[in-house]
Specification:
It contains 17 helices and eleven strands. The chain is of the alpha+beta class and 441 residues long.
Length: 441
Amino acid sequence: MGTDLTRIGQRARKEPGLVFTSLYHHICDVDNLRACYDTLDADKATGVDGVTKEEYGQNLEENLRDLSGRLKRMGYRPQPSRRSYIPKPGSEKGRPLGISCFEDKIVEEAVKCTLEPIYEAVFEDSSYGYRPGRNQHRCLDALGRTIQQKKVNHVVEADIKAFFDKLNHEWMIKFLRHRIGDERVIRLITRMLKSGIMDEGLVQASEEGTPQGSILSPLLSNIYLHYVLDLWFGKRVSRQSRGEAYYFRFADDFLACFQYKDDAESFVKRLEDRLEGFGLQLAKDKTNCIEFGRFARQDAYKRGAKPKDFTFLGFTHYCGKTKEGYFKVKRRTSRKKLGQSLREFTDWARKARHVLRKGQMLRKARIRVLGHLSYYAITDNLERCSYYVYRAKRILLKWLNRKSQRKTYTGAGFNQALAWVNWPEARVRKDLNPCRRAEAY
């Protein structure tokens, strides 16, 4: 599968306008389906049928041949996704996810692996979310260096209201047809989009949207926003701006940077109409145009105000200074994300004390803290990372000592236990210094 899809990617790069008319056989091939089965995680939640990877694999070859046969004769019908909710700040019910059945996950993975090389050849550099070799840190690095080194004085932070729930199916198919001419692939994706959601035992038809949690959803969302926002900004907005203009997007989170205020204000006005034309809605309460850049601090002080900041990808960006007193873009963990992380750690520790031994609980806690630091421990953010590590230790000690009526640890004993599990310290794990000129990756 890898060789065939590499050739597809090479051809897509050489011929940006090429429409691929023969792709479906890659999705149906038994070897390809087997490779997709191998890549799937066995520990993920199950769909409405409750089938796990282990159960599906008991008669793997027979199941894959049957699946391949149904795909070839267009007899495959994806089952409804199971609605699940994960905690979301500001929402009592939580963030909705759609959990596909295991067999549907195999097909989703096959479609994703077939289409991804085609679209990776044409996606804009401004898109960073859910793409091979790209992540949040790369996006933050490019954003910080752009504001630091380019003529940026204004930042527009915007938000699309319920993007994954409002994605328009008709527009999605129209966008796919720009590169995909194989009608069987289009028909299969249409069935996936309209497979429905099972929530509390009731199946609801899917007339719009694509479920978060689906393997294919990130790619489909990138394709949709590539045509709705990325190309529009690169070919229209930036070219029609009086000064410099830059744009960054990670999934459905995006912001734009401008040299002049009138360009930024014009973008906000045009953005609402642009989104509405494709069935999307701008969240006006979360859309702001702020003064931000090397002159923002001194201009704010002249007005007797504080320089404004903005939040993107979990970090609050603010106008700081170097040791020499020069302007520098700095970041810290947003207060909202810091509080959310500590609440999640507290909930975990309270539940874990009943089911884990002391040593297991210490090791699991270490892994959770390392996970937090691997993302948030970047340049200029050590203060908030140190605070998180300190609070996590106090929370852990509290709930370890509540495992029984007698205290489990004294202060000295707890410090020895932390040393035993090699408890992590707050140090810079990602160098995102915006003042440097060379890439660190």
